[in-house]
Amino acid sequence: MAVTTQDTLIAAMTGAQRKVWVKANVTAVAGRMCSLWSGAGQPGVGSTTLGQAAAGVVPVDTDTGFQTFTNPGSGSTYIAGISGVSAASGVIVVWDNLWTWGSGGSGWSVTTTTAQNTTTPAALTRPDSTGEGTEAWLEVLATMGAGAATPVLSYTNQAGTAGRTTGTMGYNSAAIIGSMYNFPLTAAGDWGVRSVQSLTLSVSMTSGTARVMILRRLATIPVVANVGFKYNAYDLGLPVVSNDAALMIGVQASSTASGPTQLEMILAQG
What is the CB-side half-sphere exposure of residue 168 using CA atoms within 13 A? Predict the structure, then answer.
C-alpha cells in the first residue's frame, strides 16, 4: 500500500531499513559542493572508473561506493527520516546518480578541446527516461591540472529538445578531489537533462580524472558544525527512492573541511 496517510507511514516504519554513512573528512573549498565519494569509511571509497564508456552508464546501488538497500517486493521506498552529525556547517545533499560518464578508458578526455560526443548514451531509468527535475554536475575524482577550462555540455532537455547548451560554470584550475561543479541549465524552460550529447572544454584541463553526472536531488539538509540534526518524513517531504537508486551525498561546507560526517537514513516501504 502506498504511503499516503500518517497511518500508512507508521505501518511502513515497521521493518524500515536504516542506512548509514560514516565518512572521514575530505578536504573542501568553502562554499563549493564537495562529494564524499572519495572519502574513506562506510560506504567505502567509490569507483574512479565507473562510466568510462562512450555511452556512459546508469549506476545502481550495488556499484562500488553507493549505499546499498533492498527494493520492496511491491510498492515504493520513501526517505522517512535523516539524522546525524557533521563537523562542518553548511548543507548536506542526497542524490540519486542517474547517469555517469567518466573520463579515461573509452569515455572522454580531460585534454581534448574539441567536442567529445557520447555514443547512444544510456537512457535514464529512474523513475523514467525524461530527466525532469534533474541536475548536471562535474565531479573531480583525481586532482586536476592547471588548465582553467570552461566545460560546456550539449544536451537534450526534459521535454526531448536536443541541442541545448549549458551556461558557464565556475570551474577552477587545479581542482581538488571531490570538487563538484554544476552545469547551469540557462535555456528558457529547461529544468532537467534527459541525455548528454557532448562535452566541450575551452582549453585542456592538463591532467586529472573527472566525471559528468546527471543527478536527481532527493534531500537538502541544513547542518551546523558538531550539532546533531534530525529531520523526519514531514520535514523532508517523504521523497520517493526509486528501485536500485545509486544514493550518494555531497557537502557544501562553510569551511575547508567536509567533516567527518555521519548520517543515518531511514527507508520505509509501502
Answer: 6
Considering only CA atoms, which of 101, 108, 107 is closest in space to residue 212? 101
Q: Which helix (H) or strand (E) holds 13?
A: helix 6-13
- pLDDT tens digits for range 188-206: 999 999 999 999 999 999 9
What is the secondary structure of 94-129 as a DSSP string? EEEEEEEEEBSTTSB-SS--S-EE-SSPPPP-SS-S
- Distance between CA atoms of 237 and 189, rounded to whole angstroms? 25
Helix, coil or strand: residue 245: coil
- C-alpha angle 265/58/74, rounded to 5°? 55
* Domain ranges, ordered by start, for the chain: 28-224+239-247
Q: Cα(187)–Cα(165) distance, rounded to whole angstroms?
A: 8
The pTM of this model reads 0.96
**What confidence tens digit (pLDDT) does each residue in 59-110 have?**
999 999 999 999 999 999 999 999 999 999 999 999 999 999 999 999 999 9
For 26-157, where are the E strands, in sequence order? Answer: 33-35, 41-42, 77-86, 90-102, 116-117, 134-142, 152-157
